[in-house]
């Protein structure tokens, strides 16, 4: 039994260490960064205080304010790091500063030539090892109650704790995408600081490699993935990517909790990227944005044209090749498509070629642009999400909030967050978009045709937009589910929010005041509740 489960403050806040390789607004390659950046604020209102542990990339170090070195460690053989603490963009951060592993500009995983950094194994083993040491209380005052390990990059955290066998905070392993598993050669086992006997089927071994995500799934106290449908899909051989057996074996520890989005960032009334601001649900007020967007992309400015959008990583997962194949079929002089995306070079080239072939119907921005990612949602009539699989997906959530109607494959989180405009749903006025399956060119083209037909019936189309705007895309209820899960893992009783005194929380950063000894932590916490906090102590330790 974990120390934390035996002796925790039953009605106090839960202190979570969220361990991740990306976090918006400092570093983002996809939805993982969005989730890691937006969940903490929502959890705070549920009595869960999050500190995020990040690698010390240049963008993170640049953003860190009031950085203090709280520890120096050698987490792996031959690797020395400084653990920095500070704040950035309202977040409480711990940062693993290790110049030779993390001070590299650009993409967090890829070298400038587009291949993986050759030392990615050591880089993220280092991150996980530091997380494990924090979970064991090795840095006084910064021991969390629980660790949230995101994706493979944090996967070894639970394995280190298992092989160390010391008391530690429990780990909840989150799967954002099972396609990325972090597999590395067995020859690196020692560099990862893992014992030889760890290389076993009941250990970190994964099809002859060291599997970081596999280790997390095996040793974590609980597994969360980002939608209920994906939680079911990954237990099947078709979508389990080799880990379905393990996941079926741990089915009682696995659940899906949908993602939300930051509704402050995603507010068309205040969004700086939106040229003509409008209120959520104002289907008329958004119209000037379409015209301006058509102009921006050199397309004919025509409100009656059906304007499709796609904003995505360009990879096989996202089904962009399926879309590219049917472009000649779906685009005509009443249908345009704008693509904002980057990724697979062959797909980038194919789209650029199509744009040259159909200059008045298809326009592309090949690259990453946060601004265009927002603007497309405020401007396009419909958003295409033809993913082959989709753990949750965030773009369809942004779309419905902005009055852009999603046309998506019926998989994973897309199936869980979109109500298809079939006759029944239209009659009951609950539809929010279009779903198609199986995922192929014909069904995608069929869904686009169905959507185009409704688009030509403005009142019915506006109904879809308004239903979407009413759909709750916020973190609210999802954060409650996380908080409930964390309490259950920690063996804490459910508490009513009235009993939870948030004023005591606001005074201290998330991991503050917890000493290695839980008795000390409790005294510190109780003193802080009574308001005896040293004025100048950055960690708010009781005076
Ligand atoms: P995934 O994480 O699999 O890429 P999600 O839908 O969960 O998919 O999240 C993708 C996030 O990245 C969204 O916020 C989306 O708007 C953004 N995004 C993806 N590609 C681009 C791009 N080329 N430019 C701007 N934003 C992008
Ligand atoms: C992954 C998934 C995406 C999900 C995101 C955030 O990148 O591909 O579906 O929304 O993580 O959880």
TrEMBL record:
Residues 15-248 form the Starch synthase catalytic domain. ADP-alpha-D-glucose binds at residue 28. It is an enzyme of class 2 (transferase). Residues 519-528 have a biased composition (Low complexity). Residues 508-543 are annotated as: Disordered. The keyword Transmembrane helix does not apply. GO terms for biological process: glycogen biosynthetic process. Keywords: Glycogen biosynthesis, Glycosyltransferase, Transferase. The keyword 4Fe-4S does not apply. Pathway: Glycan biosynthesis; glycogen biosynthesis. GO terms for molecular function: alpha-1,4-glucan glucosyltransferase (ADP-glucose donor) activity; alpha-1,4-glucan glucosyltransferase (UDP-glucose donor) activity. CDD domains: GT5_Glycogen_synthase_DULL1-like. Signal peptide: none annotated. It catalyses: [(1->4)-alpha-D-glucosyl](n) + ADP-alpha-D-glucose = [(1->4)-alpha-D-glucosyl](n+1) + ADP + H(+). InterPro entries: GS/SS, Starch_synth_cat_dom. One of its GO terms (cellular component) is cytosol. Its EC number is 2.4.1.21. Transmembrane segments: none annotated. Belongs to the glycosyltransferase 1 family. Bacterial/plant glycogen synthase subfamily. Synthesizes alpha-1,4-glucan chains using ADP-glucose. This is Glycogen synthase. It comes from Gluconacetobacter takamatsuzukensis.
